[in-house]
């Protein structure tokens, strides 16, 4: 959004304060004195970003006060259900106030009035005085104030939402002028506004669209057809009228403010320096120190001195390639394409940088060259020609040179795009996204824009500025050459700068980057490119079967309920379960009794309906998520499904899979297992091979705890669950029943995840006291495990992090949280991470070694998938036995433990057969 000479930003400070606190709820920021600073950081971080990005000329931050408002006088239950402010947030209020005052920005609050009313009043004044006004909040009530000159501004992690009247109507269903009428009917549970019982958002919108106002709805209610809705509208008419008064923002609050006095001045000063230093919010301090004050606001510099060039001819590019191949610099590279899916992306342009502040961009549409050599570049059956072929010819010389280290941001994507054209990018040395993840595996802000802002204190050109966002997003093909060149050069240049900043910070994690994550990146790139064959005919037949099963279940649900209803409506289902059938409510949500799967499972033994609904939902989800969705993801040329593996999602170090997620295909149900049957070997005469670690996390627990009994159990080669059951129940192994073994298995694995007495009782369906006794017996049997858990928690309290066997670190800020539930959750994470993280590291080592051997020994076999503790391959039948030997050897030898590492291997025509 371009700077406007008259922009007034009104920030709902109370809402932003709460949002900032809850954003860090599971991973709060704590300084060396034990002060929680999450809300202060989040609030100020959002404020700085807003000023940097929007450069407002005028701004005010508005807070609620503790005094009752006129709404409380109208309705004593107003906001009565709101929970008390968390202690961790209360403790930060004084400091937050100090910081905001130090910025010099206007802080407003009016006793007896809500922030909504003050903002509404100032918004109307601003509109009348010619300002473009932005109300910074996520509160839906503010939609009633939106006009062409008063907009809703909601900063979110995935992009800011700016709503004018059209967006309000599109998203809320009615124009701003009718928002209060909809709110009056539906009520607001967060503010305890009653509304009309039984009327939800959809019904409210429908009524207001038909009748125009609440009053018209209420006047027309007696003439409506007999229904529960009619009865509610008549019975709760006064409640609706009261609710309309409560939700209406009063734009005549007696706030005495001259809008000219809200002008924005630079917010960095000596007092801010002192306060942020005391609070140890150094990242914010660095951002403010690097800001460039300007008359229209205080924002960060968008760039330093730089020299970006467009390379327009093969001669220019060849000179650069020759120079770089001779000098062997660290080469930062990036591609611009037509799609976020590398298997569908076509190359639009490429950028390179070897010195900070310098970068070069080549556009395929503006590259005056023809190929000089004989090498062909064929992408999915189509041969590259002309300028594209000429570029690829020279790029291949550079990118396939093993003596030139390569770097960039999320370069697996770029390397995969090049691989689709036949270029095997060599020597992937440093990925800034992975480096930042290793420094803070709990963060979700790992994009180049965020890393540039946080580590370089620079503001990068956002992608949305070039091609927009959402449903109206355009294509890089249509972007002006100069604009895309600047953007692409920034990508390569800023990634290079990030390498220089991040590398020294990695310290002990640098070894993990060099020896594990970067080598694994090449393995994952090849796996993603290979993909896996899908039997779409089988899935089509399954879809028809499931359609019939769902239709049958739907009729059975109607019969069990005694009437037809919408099976996907929680409201209708709740009415039948709890009002008609009188089944006991298990738990409640904001909108009424819960009807989630846990609730239905608990109710299943009591009545046929919830039991059948569990089956219906399970089949419906499998059909929609996998059976019907997977065929649409088959690549048009390869005929395979190409998932994307991520190294930066799970904080434990586990890999994640998406688009599609092939790690979540269920195997506990017959239908779920059949889905795996659709994943088949891709060539005639080939088979699928599945290799799975056996009880690897328990074996790692045995190694870490060094518990004699547990070590002996594994080293004897027996069934660990039967042995555990025999010792806990005090019976010979031969007398262990399946139920005993199941209970022992549950506690064996539950301990790894820090399972509580309550969790064990829920999972086994036994009284809590019995679960507690079971766990106590377990710890008597394996005292080393209890000691390991206690030592791990104690060390985490002292250091603030835990480590895997390979030294992967995970910071756990909540380990010293004053809230017992939050602290105990952190303790469970502390216990689980070294175990699960070490297992994740182990299989990564195995993948790297297997991939290397398959290439060196020239196997046709290919690694296809990694599903946590399992690897899936395809190979000619003639290679299966040798492949099995390599896989067993490398998986079992990936890490040396005090117990043997077992690997289960199977073959088959499909994934199900191989895994069975």
Report the C-alpha radius of gyration, rounded.
31 Å
Strand order of the largest sheet: 3-2-1-4-5-6
Shape, please? Answer: globular
Secondary structure: number of strands? 29
Distance between the termini: 57 Å
Number of helices: 36
CATH topology of the domain at 307-506: Nucleotidyltransferase, domain 5
Strand fraction equals 5-15%
- How helix-rich are the residues, as a percent range? 40-55%
Main sheet record: 6 strands, mixed
Search tags:
916 residues, alpha/beta, Rossmann fold, Nucleotidyltransferase, domain 5, six-stranded mixed sheet
Notes on the protein architecture:
This protein has 916 residues and is an alpha/beta fold. Among the domains are: 7-175 and 248-262, 5'-nuclease (Rossmann fold, 3-Layer(aba) Sandwich), CATH 3.40.50.1010; 307-506, Ribonuclease H-like superfamily/Ribonuclease H (Nucleotidyltransferase, domain 5), CATH 3.30.420.10. It is built from 36 helices and 29 strands. It has a six-stranded mixed beta sheet. Helix 1 (13-23) packs across helix 2 (38-54). 42% of the residues are buried.
